[in-house]
Q: What sequence folds into this?
């Protein structure tokens, strides 16, 4: 396992949540709120992983791409902050989430594409370094889960 496989798995899990949100009934307020909260949580964790592990390691190799990715994160986080305070019954709730979904899917395509950040990582980083990044992420995630469960 390496950092790219961890992030790719995250991408697929997020996309499954996006699909579930898209298929949710407009009047199922509980489900929409649950999905919004899950998407917010998962995107926050995923963004932190990228911003704390992969992006710093690629700053010298793919500076422009890293800066663009950070700006994409920033824009999505701003919209998510609005969604967090917005009830699922709000007129623009689904439209706002659709913008988030489209933005994240575009971001994922750029990262995973043939000239994206993941390919830059494969070229610039040693396999051992990418494995160590994944181990750190998994260890940190376990610690967070344990703290949450032990409360």
A:
């Amino acid at each position: 396992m390496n950092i790219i496989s961890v992030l790719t798995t995250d991408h697929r899990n997020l996309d499954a949540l996006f699909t579930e949100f898209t298929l949710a009934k407009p009047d199922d307020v509980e489900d929409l709120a649950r999905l919004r909260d899950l998407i917010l949580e998962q995107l926050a964790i995923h963004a932190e992983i990228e911003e704390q592990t992969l992006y710093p390691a690629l700053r010298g190799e793919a500076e422009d791409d890293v800066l663009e990715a950070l700006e994409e994160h920033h824009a999505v986080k701003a919209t998510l902050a609005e969604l967090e305070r917005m009830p699922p019954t709000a007129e623009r709730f689904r439209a706002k989430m659709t913008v988030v979904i489209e933005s994240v899917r575009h971001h994922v395509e750029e990262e995973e594409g043939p000239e994206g950040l993941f390919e830059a990582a494969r070229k610039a980083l040693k396999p051992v370094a990418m494995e160590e990044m994944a181990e750190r992420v998994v260890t940190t995630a376990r610690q967070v889960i344990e703290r949450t469960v032990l409360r």
